[in-house]
Amino acid sequence: MPIGTMVVAVPLSSQHYWFRANGLVYCLYFPSRLSGRVPNLTVNGQPKISIEGRRVHVLDDDGKDWKLTIVGKVAPKE
């Protein structure tokens, strides 16, 4: 984005996590922070989750509670 005679560039990135719960597959959005803090999750692991509307609380492998946003739900094929 040009500002005067300067150009400012900001790295934008995010991560998406997929969870299966209650017979649905949820796609969760987590904005990456510049500090590099991300949930410590094991692939194919069994984290504890709590769904409250469009927000999901995930307890990671270190016992830290993370709040993520649901961006999509997929129902199983019949």
Query: How many DSSP-defined strands?
Result: 7
What's the mean pLDDT score?
79
End-to-end separation = 48 Å
Strand content: over 45%
Please list the strands of the largest sheet in the order they lie side by side.
3-4-7-6-5
Query: Which geometry do the CA atoms define?
Result: globular
**Helix-strand string:** EEEEEEE
Structurally, the number of domains stands at 1
- List low-pLDDT spans: none
Class from secondary-structure proportions: mainly beta
Largest sheet: 5 strands, antiparallel
H/I helix tally: 0
Helix content: under 10%
Question: What radius of gyration results from the CA coordinates?
Answer: 16 Å
How does this structure look, described?
This protein is 0% helix and 51% strand. It is mainly β and 78 residues long. The chain has one domain. A hairpin with a 2-residue loop joins strand 5 and strand 6 (55-59).
Secondary structure elements and their pairing?
Elements: E1 2-3, E2 6-7, E3 14-21, E4 24-31, E5 48-52, E6 55-59, E7 65-74
Antiparallel strand pairs: 1-2, 3-4, 4-7, 5-6, 6-7
Structure at a glance:
With 78 residues, this protein is mostly beta strands. The protein has strands at 2-3, 6-7, 14-21, 24-31, 48-52, 55-59, 65-74. It has one domain.
Characteristic terms for this protein:
mainly beta, 0% helix, two-stranded antiparallel sheet, globular, 78 residues
